TrEMBL record:
EC number from the UniProt entry: 3.4.16.4
One GO CC term on file: plasma membrane
Keyword Cell wall biogenesis/degradation among record annotations: yes
Designated name of the protein: Penicillin-binding protein 2
NCBIfam families reported in the protein's UniProt record: pbp2_mrdA
TM segment ranges: 18-38
Species of the source: Tectimicrobiota bacterium
Length: 628
């Protein structure tokens, strides 16, 4: 029996296939309709926004950065116009020829320019070089018709009017890093972008938010290839605010000049409130070289320079306080009743403790001395005896009370120094404090480390009645409209733990240092003011067994001179520190004198007659041995 078979061409087979085709087509159209509904209804707003973003582009217009002024309104830092050179490769008929023409003008190797072009996104203006020289700008402007696709644009770059002067304080700008960009985007409403220059150090960094201002923008319509079609709108910039400092330009310039090529720091401070009038540090650097982006090789050279020009020695240099520390030891001894101002102690050439002899800076026996005379002559053996009577912990207590051994709060990058105690030694070195170690503390040697700024705090406290003020340099911040958005008020941190009569006794001794016969700071004397001060010389390494110094400039002694004036109404404190000077602190007393004369507008006395010049250079008045 033969079964019925459906022919391939039969209506039934055709209808079956047609049904499957319709079902498949309907399914595809249904999926497309669902997808279209999803894109247009559910995700419509999202893709509409993306389309607008692709159609419109926003280009940043950088805001002018605020100025930095001294206390009298003199400009220290401002912004200057500079020319940047851009290239649009798509508009250049002969790219090779154009790049060859630009290479010598820009001082950029041809291969480096080609590499920039290769890495650039299409239909975008490519920055070839920032801050093009005026000569190159003039040539390019003259030949623009021969350089299609080449454009010049004006940008404000930072200008430090006085070059290296106060560079450590003012700081510099640098290109923002990826890490900084992320941090700033998370905590700031202001827009930051890669390639932007922001404050990287000093006041430029600390007050970035005030100085920067608010960037504007230029919105343009572009085609599908990113080419500009029309200007849609402009958002205006808002300039940054100005910083007015307590710095005095003339005093700062004088301090820098007097410091010369020496390595060290000079700080001039108002002891009445902690305002800084000058903060000079050497060696320094020129922050202008950072304005347009410092080349890698120059940055590396600064980092590797053995003189460490990037280090702000005024707040980051940590040194033994030397004989200046005798001020603190004297205060501790008076407060603890170890001595009175009239207590007489011997000042021999050597002080013997245990099996060791501790030398005085003078080789002869100077006889019994009271506190005033011991400070005036800077008798080491007097203060050895006082230190042993006090002990390390009492000395440390008063040192900390005068602001030593911890950051002052002036700058987040400052160092704290070190005030040793018996507990510190047990914790850090795992050893007890031995009585013999206390002897050297009397003259500021041993583990003690302080910064020049801490010395300024200490001598200011002696001058102002024991008040420890937080040092400051920004007096006020002013918006472009002239509104004061910040004004500093003196910040009293603490009161030194000493009585008024203790300070009076010490001030009497510091006056004698400068004004009495035999005083080690006689070269700072100004009769009209009554300068008070203290010399100090920090021994970098111990002498050898024969009492000789180790050769080498890095082993030479450091020198200190701290002072204030006028004696009856202190208005100015001056601290001078010179690293590895190899001479006594008395050598730099004349530098303080020059600053006092300038500030108080006192005519400079005539130079000594010729026959006395050599004597004046070899030994200060009343101090034939040149105190160390």
């Amino acid at each position: 029996m033969v079964k019925n078979r459906i022919s391939p061409d039969s209506p039934e087979r055709f209808q079956s296939r047609f049904f499957l085709l319709v079902l498949l087509t309907s399914t595809v159209f249904f999926i497309l309709l669902v997808r279209l509904w999803y894109l247009q209804v559910i995700k419509g707003d999202h893709f509409r926004a993306m389309a607008e973003e692709n159609r419109f582009r926003e280009f940043i217009i950088k805001s002018p950065r605020g100025k930095i002024l001294d206390r009298n309104g003199q400009i220290l830092v401002e912004s200057r116009p500079s020319f940047n050179l851009y290239l649009r490769p798509e508009d250049v008929p002969d790219l090779e020829k154009t790049l060859k023409s630009l290479s010598p003008l820009l001082g950029v190797p041809l291969e480096k320019l080609k590499e920039k072009v290769r890495q650039a996104p299409p239909y975008r203006s490519l920055l070839l070089k920032r801050d093009v020289s005026r000569e190159s700008v003039a040539y390019i402007e003259e030949h623009l018709l021969d350089l299609p696709g080449v454009m010049l644009d004006v940008e404000a770059l930072r200008s430090y009017r006085h070059g290296p002067m106060a560079a450590h304080l003012l700081g510099y700008l640098g290109e923002i890093t990826e890490r900084q960009l992320q941090q700033l985007r998370n905590r700031s409403n202001n827009h930051y972008f890669l390639g932007e220059f922001i404050g990287q150090y000093g006041l430029e960094m600390k007050y970035e938010g005030y100085l920067r201002g608010i960037h504007g923008a230029r919105q343009v319509e572009v085609d599908a290839l990113g080419r500009e079609l029309a200007l849609v709108g402009v958002k205006d910039t808002y300039p940054g605010s100005d910083l007015q400092l307590t710095l005095d330009l003339e005093i700062q310039q004088m301090a820098e000049t007097l410091l010369g090529d020496r390595t060290g720091a000079i700080i001039v401070m108002d002891p009445r409130d902690g305002a800084i009038l000058a903060l000079a540090g050497k060696p320094s650097y020129n922050p202008n070289q950072f304005a347009a982006g410092i080349p890698g090789e120059k940055w590396l050279a600064l980092l590797k320079d053995p003189k460490k020009p990037l280090q702000n020695r005024a707040i980051q240099g940590q040194y033994p306080p030397a004989s200046v520390f005798k001020i603190v030891v004297a205060a501790a001894a008076l407060e603890e009743g170890v001595i009175t101002p009239n207590t007489l102690l011997g000042c021999p050439a050597y002080y013997f403790f245990g099996n060791r002899a501790y030398r005085n800076w003078k080789k002869e026996n100077q006889g019994p001395q009271n506190l005033t005379r011991a400070l005036a002559t800077s008798c080491d053996t007097y203060f050895y005896q006082v230190a042993v009577r006090l002990g390390v912990d009492k000395i440390g207590y008063y040192a900390k009370g005068f602001g030593l051994g911890k950051p002052t709060g002036f700058d987040p990058m400052e160092k704290g120094g070190l005030v040793p105690t018996s507990e510190w030694k047990r914790r850090v070195r795992g050893e007890p404090w031995y009585p013999g170690e206390t002897v050297s503390l009397g003259i500021g040697q041993g583990p003690y480390l302080i910064t020049p700024l801490q010395q300024a705090i200490m001598i200011s406290a002696i001058a102002n009645g024991g008040k420890i003020y937080k040092p400051y340099v920004v007096r006020k911040i002013v918006t472009p409209e002239g509104k004061v958005v910040y004004e500093h008020k003196p910040e009293l941190i603490s009161q030194a733990p000493v009585k008024a009569e203790t300070l009076e006794a010490i001030r009497k001794g510091l006056w004698a240092v400068v004004n009495e016969s035999g005083g080690t700071g006689g070269r700072a004397r100004i009769d009209e003011l009554g300068v008070a001060g203290k010399t100090g010389t920090a021994q970098v390494v111990r002498l050898d067994r024969a009492g000789n110094r180790i050769p080498g400039s890095q082993y030479r002694d450091h020198s200190w001179f701290v002072s204030y004036a006028p004696f009856e109404d202190p208005q100015l404190a001056v601290v001078i520190f010179v690293e590895n000077s190899g001479v006594g602190g008395s050598t730099f007393a004349p530098i303080a004198k020059e600053i006092f004369l300038k500030y108080f507008n006192i005519p400079k006395p005539p130079p000594p007659v010729r026959q006395n010049i050599q004597a004046a250079q070899t030994a200060p008045a009343g101090n034939p041995n040149g105190e160390h």
